């Protein structure tokens, strides 16, 4: 970086720059408007009219420059303008004496070269000398003593040296750059010509020089009309099974899932693979690795929608760690946006090098939802994530994960991915099968889903209410486990099937058997108490169909800032125990730091997705390894499936806001959502009770009351110091005493509270 002028000298520098700029413009105008008949030092004219736009002074200066330097005199005003630019930008001009000498040498060299063969030329219609006095004299002397060849050998290096000193331009480096560029192009041309010759001759390659094998790619085959009609019929007539009479169910007892026609169709063009370009890229990759001292060859190419993986087999004695450290060097050498190296590929003796494609393929959500992988029927909560590196659909089951952690910087595709996951659930499940709790502290991404029948409560935007919703989910998990224990089953699927069998058997018995009522004796008092206790127990355990519950949090960082400890505890309990109860979490954050994704949370989320992040530290926080910082953005992601440490590179499906709006409007027409009143009741009880149960159960509460009664004063610091407890616990005890009338309220100062009870 060039040194800047001190602030105290900026005003002087600006004044000098304006003066030099004015002088340069004046000289340029004077030279451009030079007229040979104007009065000057070199000529006398009887005419008094001055035709030069610079007046008398301009005519004199223009004539002086042309007579001294010839056409090279034009360099003088441009030099003044350059100096003015430097001054006005407050940049210090170093080595001024050397550069002045170099500029004089430039004038001499240019004027001498111009004066070699031509003495006069015309500029703007005026006859001016080409080299001036200096140029003519210098060229004559050099030609007399050195000859034309010797004069050129002296003047040309002099010209080059002057330019190098003034501009710090290196001719050697520039020539070397051109040699490398032309050499690379020539080598590519030779390889292309050799490849074309081999293809024309159709001669089999030797085993040692076999071209890289390209995996067969899935080709999009046009769907026959019969299959299209069948698919359309399945979309329009897809009806849920018989279910309970919720408000969002129509009078005929049916609930229609959204048709695929609400989503935009993917581009009709089939995917094409340029095998010649892939082969040339493989050869170029081998050459660049060889330049870095890594011998080997590309043995297989796996082209994908966004990136292409080149499987590189290193030569003997080449360490894998040496290749892994060349990602940035290869990215610069190949002029690629970003390169990710998988060293080595698990289960293979090769290193995977992922290069971005020149033309990226957009993955439409409709394309994934229409695949057989999404409609297998084996997945309870299918999520359409996108396509993997080979272009195959990537669909996973949230019920098996059982929770998902998503991270990515702004603009990386995280919010679009959340929308694709939500639409995946809405396209496969009715409100009887899946209920959703959405938490959106940013009040931006998930508010569009307000009013769909699948919601358990309106979209939560208040972090405090989000904490209540997660606490309700924890209590609901416990209630479900009590219901399953009462039926002797271990998961939600077995519980719902057990209820269906019991309802079916009960209906068959009612239709087949006749109930006979016999006279019986009245129960004794002991029997009546036992029956009442049994009935109370049965009333608490209200059996019924249990839907899956999916809790979606769009920005975890905002919740952790407001209620970090409560949120972390609720999330940890749900992540540890809620799988069998049918409660699943999808947490997303754009700030994957350790204070947001704590060790307790990360330990219970084996399935994770990371989009592009800003640093390697963020990548290690979310994935426990590097790689996410080298992604390309716009849906490019790394997926860590549960139960494995193998990362999957894939490209997320895209869904637009207009598509989401169409699906939401379709669902709203099915009916209104039925919110669970228990969540609202829990909120009311929480605001009224204020957590008194915890305070009553505090084993130190009675000791604190006795201490206050004896000391006749009450303060949080005294309770904390005398009982050796924490500040929060002492504050809760004081608040409990104030609620029971033992101590008075605080007056806002540091004085102790008033005590209303006597010594115990």
Task: Write a brief caption for the model.
The longest helix is centred in the N-terminal third of the chain and has 36 residues. The protein has 760 residues and is an alpha/beta fold.
Fold-level CATH name of the largest domain:
Rossmann fold
Tell me the strand order in the biggest sheet. 9-8-16-15-14-10-13-12-11
Estimate the global geometry from the Cα principal axes: elongated
| Radius of gyration, CA atoms, in whole angstroms | 41 Å
Oligomer: single chain
Mean pLDDT: 79
Strand content: 5-15%
CATH architecture identity of the largest domain: 3-Layer(aba) Sandwich
Separation of the first and last Cα atoms: 79 Å
Report helical residue fraction: 40-55%
What's the count of strands? Answer: 16
State the name of the first-level CATH class of the largest domain. Answer: Alpha Beta
Question: What is the name of the CATH superfamily of the largest domain?
Answer: P-loop containing nucleotide triphosphate hydrolases
Individual helix count = 24
Low-confidence sequence ranges? 202-253, 514-523, 533-539, 683-696
Q: The biggest beta sheet, please?
A: 9 strands, mixed
**Helical/strand content category:** alpha/beta
Structural domains: how many: 4
């Amino acid at each position: 970086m060039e040194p800047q002028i001190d602030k105290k000298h900026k005003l002087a520098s600006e004044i000098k720059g304006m003066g030099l700029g004015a002088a340069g413009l004046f000289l340029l105008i004077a030279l451009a408007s030079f007229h040979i008949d104007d009065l000057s030092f070199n000529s006398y004219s009887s005419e008094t009219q001055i035709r030069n736009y610079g007046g008398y002074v301009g005519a004199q200066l223009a004539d002086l420059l042309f007579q001294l330097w010839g056409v090279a005199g034009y360099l003088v005003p441009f030099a003044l303008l350059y100096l003015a630019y430097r001054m006005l930008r407050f940049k210090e001009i170093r080595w001024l004496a050397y550069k002045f000498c170099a500029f004089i040498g430039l004038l001499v060299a240019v004027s001498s070269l111009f004066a070699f063969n031509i003495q006069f030329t015309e500029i703007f219609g005026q006859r001016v000398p080409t080299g001036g006095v200096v140029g003519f004299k210098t060229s004559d002397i050099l030609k007399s003593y050195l000859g034309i060849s010797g004069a050129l050998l002296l003047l040309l290096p002099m010209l080059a040296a002057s330019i190098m000193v003034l501009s710090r331009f290196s001719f050697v480096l520039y020539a070397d750059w051109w040699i490398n560029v032309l050499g690379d192009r020539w080598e590519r041309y030779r390889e292309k010509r050799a490849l074309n010759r081999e293809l024309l001759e159709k001669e089999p390659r030797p085993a040692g020089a076999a071209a890289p094998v390209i995996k067969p790619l899935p080709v999009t085959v046009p769907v026959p009309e019969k299959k299209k009609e069948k698919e359309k019929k399945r979309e329009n007539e897809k009806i849920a099974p018989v279910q309970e009479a919720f408000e969002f169910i129509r009078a005929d007892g049916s609930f229609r899932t959204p048709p695929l026609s609400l989503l935009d169709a993917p581009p009709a063009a089939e995917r094409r693979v340029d095998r010649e370009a892939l082969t040339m890229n493989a050869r170029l990759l081998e050459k660049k690795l060889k330049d870095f001292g890594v011998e080997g060859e590309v043995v297989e190419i796996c082209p994908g929608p966004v990136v292409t993986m080149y499987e590189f087999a290193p030569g003997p004695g080449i360490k894998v760690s040496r290749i892994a450290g060349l990602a940035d060097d290869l990215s610069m050498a190949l002029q690629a946006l970003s390169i990710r190296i998988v060293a080595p590929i698990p289960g293979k003796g090769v290193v995977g090098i992922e290069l971005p494609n020149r033309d990226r393929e957009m993955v439409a959500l409709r394309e994934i939802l229409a695949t057989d992988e999404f409609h297998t029927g084996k997945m309870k909560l299918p999520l359409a994530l996108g396509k993997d590196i080979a272009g195959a659909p990537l669909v996973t089951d949230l019920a098996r994960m059982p929770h998902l952690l998503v991270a990515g910087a702004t603009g990386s595709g995280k919010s679009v991915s959340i929308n694709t996951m939500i639409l995946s659930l809405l396209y496969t499940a009715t409100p009887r099968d899946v209920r959703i709790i959405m938490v959106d502290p940013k009040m931006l991404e998930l508010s569009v889903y307000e009013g769909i029948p699948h919601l358990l409560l309106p979209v939560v935007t208040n972090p405090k209410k989000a904490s209540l919703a997660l606490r309700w989910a924890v209590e609901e998990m416990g209630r479900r486990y009590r219901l399953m224990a009462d039926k002797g089953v271990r998961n939600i699927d077995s519980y719902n099937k057990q209820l269906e069998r019991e309802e079916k058997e009960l209906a068959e018995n009612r239709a087949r058997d006749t109930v006979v009522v016999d006279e019986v004796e009245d129960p004794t008092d002991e029997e009546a108490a036992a029956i009442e206790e049994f009935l109370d127990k049965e009333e608490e355990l209200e059996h019924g169909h249990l839907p899956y519950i999916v809790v979606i949090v769009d920005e975890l960082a905002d919740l952790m800032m407001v209620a970090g400890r409560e949120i972390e505890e609720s999330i940890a309990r749900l992540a540890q125990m809620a799988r069998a109860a049918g409660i699943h979490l999808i947490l997303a954050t754009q700030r994957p730091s350790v204070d947001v994704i704590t060790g307790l949370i990360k330990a219970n989320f084996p399935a994770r997705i990371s989009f592009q992040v800003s640093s390697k530290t963020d990548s290690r926080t979310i994935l426990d390894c590097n790689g996410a910082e080298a992604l390309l953005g716009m849906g490019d992601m790394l997926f860590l499936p549960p139960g494995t440490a193998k990362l999957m590179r894939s490209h997320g499906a895209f869904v637009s806001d207009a598509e989401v709006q169409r699906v939401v409007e379709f669902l709203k027409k099915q009916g209104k959502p039925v919110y669970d009143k228990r969540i609202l009741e829990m909120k009311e009880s929480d605001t009224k009770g204020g957590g008194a149960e915890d305070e009553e159960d505090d084993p130190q509460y009675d000791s604190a009351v006795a201490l206050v009664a004896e000391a006749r004063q009450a303060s949080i610091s005294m309770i904390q110091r005398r009982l050796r407890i924490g500040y929060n616990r002492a504050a809760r005890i004081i608040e409990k005493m104030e609620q029971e009338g033992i101590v008075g309220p605080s007056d806002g100062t540091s004085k102790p509270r008033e005590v209303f009870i006597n010594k115990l």
